[in-house]
Amino acid sequence: MTKVHEPLFHLTKRTNGSQKRAWALRGVAFLISVLACAIITVSLTENDMGYFFDKFFNGLFGTPRNVWNLFHETAILLLIALAVTPCFKMKFWNIGGEGQVLMGALGAAVIIRFMGGQTADALTIILSLALSIAFGIVWAVIPALFKAKWNTNETLLTLMMNYIAVCLVNFFIKSVASSGTGILTFSKGIIPALGGNEFILKIIIVAVLTTLMAIYLKFSKHGYEIAVVGESPNTAKYVGINTKVVIVRTLVLCGVLCGIAGFLLVSATNHSLSSESTVGGRGFTGVLISWLGQFNPVFMALMSFLVVFVERGSTAYGNFARLGASYPHVMTGVFFFFIIAVEFFVNYKFVFRPDIQEKLDALTLKVKVKFSKKQPQNEVNAQTEEKQEEQEPSKEDKTDDFEIVDDAATDDAQEPQLEKRDEVSESEKEDK
Fold first, then answer.
1. Same domain for 109 and 192?
2. Does residue 226 sit in the same domain as residue 161?
């Protein structure tokens, strides 16, 4: 008979994990990631830890403009994450957010380039917004149609379309400015600052869109259909949901949001178009934020803030220490490493073999005993007294448990017994 070898441990999915514990672990992972960034930076430079945190936080909160820029970058990143969230909730793996936003930026740039200064700025802004949304929808619907009609792999198709979008943007820039630097700038037909603040309008727009997206996903019929198609396409077909229509409709919504993001980046943020710096990798980062935020717009807003927090702080320190343009990306990668690692422990746990588990329990008990010995004597005495008080009944309980006997009654009861003993002793003497 062959003996079955039981593994040392195996992984199981947590079924009763609390949200408080999960978010506490994520908070600890965030703090550890920032500390790890500081340790790595100090080990590579001659500066100390205090200098790192001074420049890090000064770049985030040193001036009012830095604070506004922090929330502005959070809003832009959140908007792109919101765009791909309905796709991922439907389990349509749209990795083309980068290209879809870039196409929206191209649509805005086309109108601004040929109509900026030629017509009223209000008309230019409206038309650039419309063309941005149209370009974003087209670029998002193409893989949706292929998926609905021929069940193609949406991951590969959307990923390849990112590079096609880059090529189209470069072609347009070289067509209108062949002798330039590869960056097309605009000064007319763009959105002006609102009340002297160039950030507040975009923050308000993203806040409104975030609220609407949360309501759409949780309370609307379309949001329910997205969830059902994501859980089981066969169940969706059984209850009468047209999965092809849901796929195309959801990607249209994604294209609209990506188009708005591209329009805001060109017309209200950068005032320029570039295949490299306009979107700057936000499309790929938005995918991570959507997943880490569990497709919940509120959690995604928090995650977007943390990402921008690390990135902007690292950029500020990198500028002071002259560490190059790649330094913030490395620090952001360190942040994602710890956040994704902790997600593993939030969702899964190690289950050891029974004999190994017994040894671990014994080791844990020994550590607790040693820790209790290292505690101050006053704390140990206090804990001992508390345990004794819990174990020993109080005086009132003792009086309830035992009867109170009167001394006089006890003496009266003992006198007859003494007399009997005297009589027995005298009779024994007579017999002898």
1. yes
2. yes
